[in-house]
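> forwarded from #structure-qc
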């Protein structure tokens, strides 16, 4: 029996028990941290030592020294390109300003040209009207300083009759005349006598030396105009009369 117990103690399966003092958790974490830092330091040292042995740092330094001049050259080129771009932008802005100014000037010239063409056409119309007044046609009663120098009438395709009258005060330094112009149109409506006047009645006008008046009178259907008469009225007094036959 004793021999069995002795053999049991000497074998691997012999029961054993160890009593150790337990370390606090903060101390354990501190020890682990120190060990981890020591391992990291050893690994970093081994990495740096390996780079020195392989000559990697030397090659990188030489590459950096070679790249720095290229970097400076690229910066200089970038500055030059930026300067050229700014100059080109300034020129473009100047060109836009000049083009805008020229466009505005061209628009003003076009507008002025239209005004001149309109004024030229008006002068041509006046000249043609005045030329047709010599000699005056038709019966007239223009006694006194106020006279109707010319009367024209034309039937348009639109069914209207266009009329023009030139009134003149044949005196030196005349006083402004305030009067009314009465227009009378006579003809035939389906073979029957017909006459008509301006829709608003006699037209009020003011004239000092001469005045030109014109308008369009809509003719009723089937009406054929034979004559046109113009009268200048001063109140109820007839100052001038002029008639033409169409």
């Amino acid at each position: 029996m004793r021999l069995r117990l002795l053999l049991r103690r000497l074998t691997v399966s012999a029961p054993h028990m160890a009593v150790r003092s337990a370390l606090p958790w903060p101390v354990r974490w501190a020890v682990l941290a120190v060990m981890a830092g020591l391992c990291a330091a050893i690994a970093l040292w081994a990495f740096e030592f390996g780079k020195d042995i392989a000559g990697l740092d030397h090659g990188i330094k030489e590459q950096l020294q070679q790249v720095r001049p290229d970097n400076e050259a690229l910066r200089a080129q970038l500055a030059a390109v930026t300067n050229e771009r700014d100059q080109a932008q300034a020129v473009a802005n100047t060109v836009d300003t000049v083009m805008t100014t020229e466009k505005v000037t061209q628009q003003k010239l076009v507008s002025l040209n239209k005004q001149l063409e309109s004024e030229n056409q008006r002068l041509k119309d006046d000249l043609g009207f005045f030329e047709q007044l010599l000699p005056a046609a038709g019966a007239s009663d223009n006694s006194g300083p106020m006279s109707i120098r010319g009367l024209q009438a034309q039937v348009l395709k639109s069914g209207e009759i266009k009329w023009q009258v030139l009134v003149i005060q044949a005196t030196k330094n005349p006083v402004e005349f305030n009067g009314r112009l009465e227009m009378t149109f006579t003809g035939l409506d389906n073979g029957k006598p017909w006459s008509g006047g301006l829709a608003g009645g006699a037209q009020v006008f003011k004239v000092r030396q001469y005045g030109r008046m014109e308008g369009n009178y809509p003719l009723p259907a089937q009406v054929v105009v034979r004559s046109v008469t113009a009268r200048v009225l001063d109140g109820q007094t007839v100052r001038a009369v002029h008639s033409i036959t169409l």
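QC bot note: The radius of gyration is 59 Å. The longest helix spans residues 56-132.
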